Amino acid sequence: MTVNRQILLASRPTGWPTEANFKLVESPLPRPGENQVLVRSHFLSLDPYMRARMDAVKSYAKSVEVGEVMVGGAVGEVIESKSPKLAKGDFVVGPLGWQEFAAADAAAVMKVDTKLAPPSVYLGTLGMPGVTAWVGLIDICQPKTGETAVVSAASGAVGSVVGQLAKSHGCRAVGIAGGAKKCEYVVKELGFDACIDYKAGNLHHDLKDATPNGVDVYFENVGGETLDAVLTRMNPFARIAVCGLISQYNASDPYGVKNLRSVLVNRVKMQGFIVSDRMELWPRALNDLGTLFAQGKLKYRETVAEGLASAPAAFLGMLRGENFGKQVVRLV
Ligand SMILES: NC(=O)c1ccc[n+]([C@@H]2O[C@H](COP(=O)([O-])OP(=O)(O)OC[C@H]3O[C@@H](n4cnc5c(N)ncnc54)[C@H](OP(=O)(O)O)[C@@H]3O)[C@@H](O)[C@H]2O)c1
């Protein structure tokens, strides 16, 4: 193997991105330097945050420059090691980018246990999305037994873990997802108590039915009208973790929240967070998630696109909600 295939950001999108914003190129295989490893990625993760990195606007993380390899997490096999910490054959996860091979600092990747879970799970339930669910729910919202916890994008990588964690903390877990099939999966497979299909057109009414005792915890993944609807169900001293606002990522005219009064009158704590700011919580979160996973208490589902060239289309599909569970790309 002498050739690496990579996907670059070819141009910045305005509004919805298209496949023309990406470019597939071939380049020489990278060589690992001192304390580095050469990794052959087996699965690439596609995540909503990548949409923001395509823009030049100021955010919590640096944008991808036009002509650079798209950022992204991947899991793969060490095929050459110049680090005493990792050996050939180890599986690692890390920010390896949209490419088939990467030379990475050994300190920037994490060894994973492929006996506990298949490699791709370290991009979802036992990876960044799982830790995101844990930080937002456990650290920020602090759920208590008997409370009602609602999560949007409930069948997705983050949302599926939020609801299952809420159940393991004795809560009534209510999901919001797009379509009857996703809702059926959320209740029957993931074990939520209820799930509302926001596309069915009765969001306010269905939310009221599903939350007879009001809402104590809301894990926000989508924003827009969904947030306004959940705000009408808040109990006094409820907590909201603002994790993501995917309905707004391509919006030219952002939705203006109307029901903020509920935050005041119910003394709601509402906090945004970025999982990479909370590195001190990752070991505890991964330990908890790994224990639940080993006990069969964390179910997951994946949508797998085949081959690096399919990554742009799969990414755009995920932004439209076409993924069902964690979106990954199989590279090997
Ligand atoms: N703060 C952090 O550190 C952090 C870290 C990771 C992820 N996040 C955020 O967490 C959220 C979920 O990410 P994920 O990786 O788990 O993705 P995901 O839920 O697996 O996939 C995205 C889902 O978003 C939903 N969606 C798309 N457009 C929507 C719209 N207009 N209205 C409502 N829902 C829409 C779709 O589900 P439906 O078919 O159900 O609509 C789609 O399947 C995102 O907002 C992401 O940015 C934040």
Give the helix/strand layout.
Blueprint: E1 3-9, E2 22-28, E3 36-45, H1 49-53, E4 74-81, E5 91-94, E6 101-105, E7 110-111, H2 128-141, E8 148-152, H3 157-168, E9 172-177, H4 180-188, E10 194-197, H5 203-210, E11 215-220, H6 225-231, E12 234-242, H7 261-265, E13 269-272, H8 282-294, E14 302-306, H9 311-319, E15 326-330
Parallel strand pairs: 8-9, 8-11, 9-10, 11-12, 12-13, 14-15
Antiparallel strand pairs: 1-2, 3-4, 3-6, 3-15, 4-5, 5-7
The structure holds NADP nicotinamide-adenine-dinucleotide phosphate.
Residues 47-49, 129, 132, 153, 155-159, 177-178, 182, 221-222, 243-244, 246-247, 273-275, 318, 321, 323, 326 line the site of NADP nicotinamide-adenine-dinucleotide phosphate (NAP).
Question: Care to describe what's here?
Answer:
By secondary structure, the protein is of the alpha/beta class. Helices cover 25% and strands 26% of the residues. The chain contains 9 helices and 15 strands. The strands form 3 sheets. Strands 3, 4, 5, 6, 7, 14 and 15 form a 7-stranded mixed sheet that branches. A 6-stranded parallel sheet has the order 10-9-8-11-12-13, sandwiched between helices. Strands 1-2 form a two-stranded antiparallel sheet. Helix 2 packs across helix 3 and helix 2 crosses helix 8 (282-294). The longest helix has 14 residues, at 128-141. The protein binds NADP nicotinamide-adenine-dinucleotide phosphate (NAP). NADP nicotinamide-adenine-dinucleotide phosphate is lined by residues 47-49, 129, 132, 153, 155-159, 177-178, 182, 221-222, 243-244, 246-247, 273-275, 318, 321, 323, 326.
